[in-house]
Design goal:
Largest sheet: 7 strands, parallel
Strand content: 15-25%
Number of domains: 2
CATH class of the largest domain: Alpha Beta
Number of helices: 16
Structural class: alpha/beta
Bound molecules: adenosine monophosphate
CATH superfamily of the largest domain: P-loop containing nucleotide triphosphate hydrolases
Order of helices and strands: HHEHEHEHEHEHHEHEEHEHEHEEHEHEHH
Helix content: 25-40%
Radius of gyration: 27 Å
Strand order of the largest sheet: 3-4-2-5-6-1-7
Amino acid sequence: MPFRNLGLEDEILRAIQQAGYIRPTPVQAACIPKVMQGQDVIAIAQTGTGKTAAFVLPILHRLSQCHRQEQLRGIKVLILAPTRELAVQIVDNIRAYGRHLPIRTAAIYGGVDEEAQIKALRKGVHIIVATPGRLLDLLERHKLDFNLLEILVLDEADRMLHMGFRPDIETIVGTLPKRRQTLMFSATLSKEIESLARRFLYQPKMVQIGKRSNPADTVTQCVYEVPAHLKNALLLELLRQPEFKRVLVFTRMKDGADRLTNFLKLAQVKVAKLHSSRSQDQRLQALQDFKDGKAQVLIATDIVARGIDIDGVSHVVNYDFPVNPEDYVHRIGRTGRAESPGDAISFVPKQDLNLLDMLELFICQRLVRKHLRGFNYHAPVPPPAPGEKPPRRDWRKRTRDMEAMKAAPSSKRPPPKPADRRGKK
Ligand code: AMP
């Protein structure tokens, strides 16, 4: 079915054509008509399957129809997203799809000077894409007025309704008109979060493409059972293979990302890093360097896991195994987007095997185990190949010497070597 059959305005169809899209993806074909009719929608579809356009296109259609009848006034649409990077990306999408329409959009997020954002609001905008923290701050200081709001969108809905964000979301929703259209989009949505979400919606239509909480089929997944102390070496070994062109590496903690970045830099790998302790400029620069190919590797915490769309990510590596199975699905969804293939690799040290079990139950799939010689748990020390230099230390001989030394009377023991004295007071 071509886009034309959906009944979108000509200006929008022209922009879609310029974006190079030929036909709607399944989630778009299912959502666009419902949103155009003004229905509330909960949509669950795998990562990278075009969810943003599934809500942006019909929203633009509705706004352009309003504009035909009267001059557009006030903030009509609020889109909430969990990270600044995702908010910026959604604004870019709206501007691309709405390039032929007189619709103004603003991004509201923290980590940058608020003056420019307040100035944009004063000029008048129709769509706001925001992260909850900065939006609440501006709301409390009466810099925003949602009296004319018609549509609310929660992107990455399960993340937005999770404990960390929920109080902020409840406060924000409390300031919006009760009569509005509400849309929720996510790749993962547990039944508990869904029932919580329903409190914000009116007779919502469910759209579910593929199995709930499944990664896209375009991603090939495997795990390496590797001892924790060999993860750096294994990563370096993999990065040396030519097919590892654009690699997104996830760590659990910010300091882990810092340490790994330093290690890879020393190994001459071109690397960028992105986590919440970096300034907004540094975050955007890291993303840009990775998109432009200036960095082969982007090391990031889970703030990049949600919704971020980077072309041609060849591999996602879970350097640290994710604690929540949902995070796994979102992380690996950064590759294999828009039907192109991608690889997801997870490092699993012994202490994380229980997390692997939990994940396999969640995605109803057993992941392929791969081994690289010398990097798995039980790998015996490989014998030297013919012509190869023997190992630098002969541990068996060293042990024999130690035993002999212990057995000898102390007067006969040789004095310790200078190296052995190091560290002793
Ligand atoms: P999203 O899931 O919204 O992040 O979109 C994933 C990718 O799919 C983005 O790079 C979009 O540009 C692309 N995309 C969205 N809709 C279509 C479509 N109908 N045809 C081809 N590509 C699309």
